[in-house]
Amino acid sequence: MKKQTAFSKMILIGLVLIYLIAFKNFPYFNLILQAKVIAGVIFLLAVCLFSVSTRVMIAGCLLLLVFTGSLVLMGKESLAQTVGDMIYFLLLVGVIKKIKSESELA
Amino acid sequence: MNWLDLNPLAAGDWLYLFEETIRSFSFWPERWGYHYSGMGGPNYASGLVYFFTTTAKLFNSLGASWPLIERLVWFGPIFGLTLFSSFFLAKQLFTGKSLFYWLTPVLYFFNTYFLLLIDGGQLGVAFGYSLAPLILGFLVSLPKNHRWPRRLMIGLAFGLQILLEPRIFLLTLGTVLGYFILVAGAKKVYGLLLFWPLLLALTVNLFWLWPALTVKGGALPPDYGTAGWIGFLSFANFSGTLSLLHPNWPENIFGKTYLLRPEFLVLPVLAFSSLLFINYSRVSDLPAGKAGLTSLKAGKLNNSLINNKVILHFNLLALLGAFLAKGSNPPFGWIYLWLFDYLPGMKLFRDPTKFYFLVALSYSILIPHSLAKIYQLFFTKELIKK
């Protein structure tokens, strides 16, 4: 359980860092802001989000959603679209997981 | 300002009617008429057209001009009903004393989808949109109050929605069924409660539904059923639908779409934040020790919150609406095309933006709920961390 909490925190910190880097337009960010690299990293994060609690998963999705806003501001609309698609399916999984746990409680 | 004086209001699909035109209308429903195309033609949107022509003729015979009629019959009731019905739904769902439910009518009215419906003159759709929360509000309270006057009101509201916009009726019905399945646990009794209002709604519409379905020429023009329309009319992309941002906002020029505006991402972030508070909603969910230590009484906590399942229902509805409103655009655009070809009734949705209604309805409930919870978290310290 402790491992899972630490892992959740790591993911959240990772997401916040990505957001901050994007938001402040870190000088080297444009070098690494290749659509495939970012999409790959986000995909890996998305996979990791499956193994944490639903709440962390949803919080991660919301952070990623804010991140897509930064991408749009930086003119990376197509990348934002790719990230947005992943967020959507993660949110959907999160909602379904919540519904399942609610019906089990009932 | 044009809305307040008696200048005519006409834009997009909305018409201006001359006195002579109004006088030529019939009081009786017409399946075929010379108004519907140059040399005359079938009346496809029979219920809506009948309401349009009959009310125009009725008020004109009382001496009203078209600018007054359109305000009395269309714009006035739509504006009033949209605000009232969304407020009524919020009152049914938010059982506590939170003032945040006043935001529901604001969000339901002042969103890009509804504003462009009005701007584009799609007043039949706007009328259906304005009735939907009222019906949902009535149905939410139906298990508590299922007396005949309440069922009669639901039936008449459903009937008016079928008359004016059957597509929004189908979406409202889907929302209601989803609510009963997810929130109320799909009990048989709810099906029975819903049966009589639906029967009444269909019966009062038989005068135009029956000929529309049986008279040769079909209920819809022949090319409406082809999937080619979907690609043409799928203007919205996924980020836009999730942000409740109409693709033609702000100019509303048909076919001219715009890129995503990041400021609109605030709406889904706030709406889906409601999922983060779900486990805080019940004292019974708390570990035994914490539940005992808290100074909150169970009643107080339960009274200030919406049922968890209601929140989940509206979240699911928002996600479904956002997915369908983008039509055949990626990702998985083929799903919409497949549904259009094989799901009965889906042929009515060749314009996928109708599904924005589900997103607007959901966000107008979820966002005030999230804000209420955030307020509680930071200012009243009522929430207890698990």
Automatic annotation (TrEMBL), chain A:
- Membrane-spanning residues where? 7-23, 29-49, 79-96
Presence of keyword Transmembrane helix = yes
Q: Which UniProt keywords apply?
A: Membrane, Transmembrane, Transmembrane helix
Any idea what this protein is called? Answer: Uncharacterized protein
The organism encoding this protein is Candidatus Shapirobacteria bacterium CG09_land_8_20_14_0_10_49_15
